[in-house]
Amino acid sequence: MSDQEAPLVNGVEHMTCEALPFVDDDYGGVIVEMKTPMDPKSFVAALKYSFAQWRLQGKKGVWLNLPISHVNLVEPAVKEGFRYHHAEPTYLMLVYWIPEAESTIPLNASHRVCVGAVVLNHNKEILVVQEKYGTLRGTGVWKIPTGVVDEGEDIFAAAIREVKEETGIDTEFLEILAFCQTHESFFAKSDLFFVCLLRPTSFDIQKQDLEIEAAQWMRFEDSACQPITHKNDFFKAIHRICSMKMEKSYTGFSTKPITTFIDDKLGYLYWNKQEEMNNSIS
Amino acid sequence: MSDQEAPLVNGVEHMTCEALPFVDDDYGGVIVEMKTPMDPKSFVAALKYSFAQWRLQGKKGVWLNLPISHVNLVEPAVKEGFRYHHAEPTYLMLVYWIPEAESTIPLNASHRVCVGAVVLNHNKEILVVQEKYGTLRGTGVWKIPTGVVDEGEDIFAAAIREVKEETGIDTEFLEILAFCQTHESFFAKSDLFFVCLLRPTSFDIQKQDLEIEAAQWMRFEDSACQPITHKNDFFKAIHRICSMKMEKSYTGFSTKPITTFIDDKLGYLYWNKQEEMNNSIS
């Protein structure tokens, strides 16, 4: 496009009077995903033209997905009234709410989800590791394998994956024993930490070198006797729950695949199935 | 600053050789929070100067918090090698990993957390609403109050808040009966939906007009007889769990305030306390 001004039609440049590419979302809004490079001037013209159409069509929310390669369009978009919604390393999602009525734009993700894996074998031993990084680095503390649940990953699957990655041990998921919610884990975001009970199906440890200093099967009693277990509420509670579980006097939440009430989406229900004698929902 | 080029010292403009304001984080990195307006040219010069210092000091991650009013600095930051980390309506957080070693930058929040509130009174009635918006709008379906857990909000507190907001009913939290995880709830993010059992401490409904079409106490049996309960796995499971609970043959997870293993942070543990006879951890 030349630097010369193009003729204006209702304040919109005539030469670029093409709408931005978009698809409808399920909530009366549109999603614009920028894929080909565009200069800011053409982008703003196309945006204005598109908005005129969307307003006529009664559209509500306008989502604008800008890959990081389109960073040149962030400033013009914000100047046209877009606000940030969320971002991932490779893209920034902006949003604009058209109607006068209050916005029903969904909130951004607020929680990181982590798992800790309690893996107990038939010899009353627990699978523990020492980490190369993190707050317990160099303390000599033996801890259960832990990790972050990926976007789109099931909690039970993340527990199985982390154990395999850190120790090479194969496992089956049994129950969520308990979970913990904390806040301001990083910036304003909150954490949910799920303690999962797993049954090992292999026993030879192949530790991962990148993050793990050492890994072993440790007598459960010895693991419970570490000073940190007594000093810290959380470790104490988890060891007490494991003890009860080993005495078969504790029930956590099991999984059940389910279709949820929104759009018949597939998911997993975590619930206490122990007392469900007649098996009517499982 | 004039448009004329300032003299260069090691490629950095001499006139702007001041470091950006920053604070250290707890993991060997720094956090830059831009508060005063800055033009892109001065910003890039200050950034280069700061990076030279941070490299000498062995700093790892560099967090750059750009309020939306500083949108003019997003493109220069990305061109200097920053990547997006997360965004909220009012700011964009970018990050740069300095070391050769693999990045230990924490992942972004991946889950939205929602609650549904089962409020049962002594007459075997359940508190239900009809919504003005959402997928069940206009269907005549009576459902439990639901809502999104805010960043920094406890799950049990969110359930109490949502019931109060939608129906005016005061409640006490008893248990999490079950929860459900689903994926791709909006874009690539996942959802966790916690079903909470609450005891009402007031009974006169004052429905909220903005989102709620109608609210009432409904015989639990009638609520369970709605066609949607039979058609949908999730509603069916929740009603079955509530039935068991009313027959005192189901235990969910109760709360226990706790200090967690990271930084002695305060949080809540959710666990099955029923079988904890000797009360040793509660």
TrEMBL record, chains A, B:
Alphabetized GO MF terms: ADP-ribose diphosphatase activity; metal ion binding; NAD binding; NADH pyrophosphatase activity
Pfam families: NUDIX, Nudix_hydro
Alphabetized UniProt keyword annotations: Hydrolase, Magnesium, Metal-binding
CDD domains registered for this protein in UniProt: NUDIX_ASFGF2_Nudt6 (cd04670)
E.C. designation(s): 3.6.1.13, 3.6.1.22
Family: Belongs to the Nudix hydrolase family.
InterPro entries: NUDIX_hydrolase-like_dom_sf, Nudix_hydrolase6-like, NUDIX_hydrolase_CS, NUDIX_hydrolase_dom, Pre-Nudix
Descriptive protein name: Nudix hydrolase
Protein purpose: Mediates the hydrolysis of some nucleoside diphosphate derivatives, possibly using both NADH and ADP-ribose as substrates.
Record domain Nudix hydrolase: where: 110-240
UniProt entry tagged with the keyword DNA-binding: no
Cofactor: Mg(2+)
Swiss-Prot/TrEMBL catalytic activity: ADP-D-ribose + H2O = D-ribose 5-phosphate + AMP + 2 H(+); NADH + H2O = reduced beta-nicotinamide D-ribonucleotide + AMP + 2 H(+); NAD(+) + H2O = beta-nicotinamide D-ribonucleotide + AMP + 2 H(+)
